[in-house]
Amino acid sequence: MGTLVGHVAPGFAFLVLGLWHLFSHIKLHSQQPNSYRSSPWFPTSKSRYLELFLIMLASSVSVSMELFIGPESHQPFDSDGTIPSNHLHNFEHSSISITFFVYAAFAVLLDRIGPAAQYGLTQFLGALAFGQQLFLFHLHSADHMGVEGQYHFLLQIVIAVSLATTLMGIGLPESFMVSFVRSASITFQGVWFVVMGYALWTPSLIPKGCFLALEEGHQVVRCHGEEALHRAKSLVNIQFSWLLVAITIFVISFYLVLVRFYGEKVEYSILTKEHLLCEESDDVESQKGGKVGGKEELYGNWKRLCAN
Predict the structure, then answer these.
(1) Which has the closest alpha carbon to 188: 255, 100, 251, 124?
(2) Which among 128, 164, 217, 263 is placed 20 to 30 Å from 280, CA to CA?
(3) pTM of the entire predicted model
(4) Quick one: 175 and 273 in the same domain?
(5) For residue 23, how many other CB atoms are within 10 A of its CB?
(6) Which residue windows are transmembrane per the record (predicted)?
(7) Residue 173 contacts residue 28 (beta carbons within 8 Å)
């Protein structure tokens, strides 16, 4: 991170993951509204662990970029073996990626072993990853007071929602809304990372009265005076509020479209099964020439159900 690509790349990963979870949870709930149970991750038709393998791959690439590819000397340490100040944030970002790698790796292991506490432990590992992310962004060594700090502050709100809903999911595995909000928050994280990357490192998008300055080997946004800084932070807040409305409209619309599509399929399947059962009951009744007592009453009730 600390560059346009360093924010857009992880943002795209969070965006894809959030949309995949949003789609999967809505589809699952539409098909099984009465027996819905949340899942921390979802298999695909190509590979059961594709989602988790991609998380491990993305985390490994992120660590490599932060510690070995990004630095000019291709290693993050000073000549005396200590961590220089301008590489502190590289270790912070790498720690987040390592935690997500641990989550994905143990999710695969837990699924293969299949212990009784598999679901709860997987959710706990996911919550730990979001907790690590929130902790390191809250105590980030980068600028806390400037425009970048405002972006990070608002990002922490979204991460907190991801953390809270993941923890709630441990005790509420049958709550669709908990999974829905968590998926939406992960999607929001992705969008906000992408917006942050372009807004902070594209000169034409820098707020009026502010500029890009090179400090400790990194470009940061600085402003001419308090008034310009206040205006820039206010613009960041407006961006966040507009994106909140836009993502809310998107996720609700996405839900309505998928429910209409998969809900109709389920309804058609149920009606087809009921129609076949009605035909079978008519055949049985005609073959037996009608029954008396309890069986006759049962056939009568079933015929009335089929007539509705």
Answers:
(1) 251
(2) 263
(3) 0.84
(4) no
(5) 15
(6) 6-28, 49-70, 90-109, 121-139, 151-172, 184-201, 240-263
(7) no
Do 217 and 109 share a structural domain?
yes
pLDDT in tens, the chain (308 residues): 668 888 999 999 999 999 999 999 999 999 999 999 999 999 998 899 999 999 999 999 999 988 888 777 767 787 777 878 777 888 889 999 999 999 999 999 999 999 999 999 999 999 999 999 999 999 877 666 789 999 999 999 999 999 999 999 999 999 999 999 999 999 999 999 999 999 999 999 999 999 998 887 778 899 999 999 999 999 999 999 999 999 999 999 999 999 999 976 654 444 454 444 555 555 545 555 444 444 455 445 545 545 55
The gap between the terminal CA atoms of the chain, to the nearest Å, is 62
CB 14 within 8 Å of CB 172: no
Query: 3-state class of 256 per DSSP?
Result: helix
Q: Dig out the tokens for 83 from the structure.
A: 């961590």
- Within 8 A by CB and 6+ apart from 298, the residues are none
Two tokens, residue 152 = 């990070």
Residue with tokens 């709630």: 168
- Residue 218 DSSP SS3: strand
Distance CA 196, CA 250 (A): 20
Tell me the residue length of the chain.
308
- Look up the domain containing 300 and give its range: 266-307
Q: Let me know whether 220 and 85 are in one domain.
A: yes
**Counting beta carbons within 10 angstroms of the beta carbon of residue 61, is it exposed (0 to 12), middle (13 to 18) or buried (19 or more)?**
middle
At 48, which amino acid appears? R
